[in-house]
Amino acid sequence: MNAKFMNNAISQAKNAAKLDEVPVGAVIVKNGKIIAAAHNLTKTQKDATAHAEMLCIKAAQELLCTDHLFGCELYVTLEPCPMCAGAIINAKIDEVIYGAADPKGGAVDSKINLFAQNFNYRPAVYGGIKEEACRSLLQEFFEDKR
Amino acid sequence: MNAKFMNNAISQAKNAAKLDEVPVGAVIVKNGKIIAAAHNLTKTQKDATAHAEMLCIKAAQELLCTDHLFGCELYVTLEPCPMCAGAIINAKIDEVIYGAADPKGGAVDSKINLFAQNFNYRPAVYGGIKEEACRSLLQEFFEDKR
What we know:
Two copies of one chain form a homodimer.
Chain A: H1 5-18, E1 25-30, E2 33-39, H2 52-64, E3 72-78, H3 82-91, E4 95-100, E5 124-126, H4 131-145
Parallel strand pairs in A: 3-4, 4-5
Antiparallel strand pairs in A: 1-2, 1-3
């Protein structure tokens, strides 16, 4: 875990906001280098599964030509939802580092801890990294919507 | 729910086996008609997220030009994993009908019930539909692997 990579995830989230997408961004890091970056695209792609983490996982798999992301760290600005937490298990990502907690939809700490349910794989988790920056992006986005 | 559509999901699962993929198949039905069909493609696509349900959800969204699958039923031969159960919540699918339970990885009944965790959406669930046919496909597949 290196908190500096959250800045890259935050940049991705800002790009999402420019497209009027909920500002959530993610990057995947392997051996200290970013190998994939993505942001939420659910509205643009009309795809409820096009969360930042899913798009990032797919991009990393494509780059590495494998469906196992051993040795990879996922940095994401918002606590993953159940779908993304499940994808993290399936892809066997080593570490998950998230920014803001998601009291309503978080599946890693807030609402449930999917990783503690004894599925066949359990990543390390670091929450609350650059939380204030991650959360304020979301707050500003939703305030503008009112 | 109409159990006959599980036969179509089973046909999809058989197609998966022909490609040496774990035989899990799914179809999505709206207004009594199949609008999407898919099977597991994780090995072929080198993508840990390429489960039958995910591919089916994406295909249905594309067809309907929307990320909300209201009025849709998902038939799948195996109990959904956490990722797929989470995608079902995100896409707001009305009903989930599954065949064989998955004691090790099922996130709808067996290991946990993700839909009972008070996320923002809860579909109806019917389990054990044409269970024997769905399960025997999986058993034969894994016996051949020994």
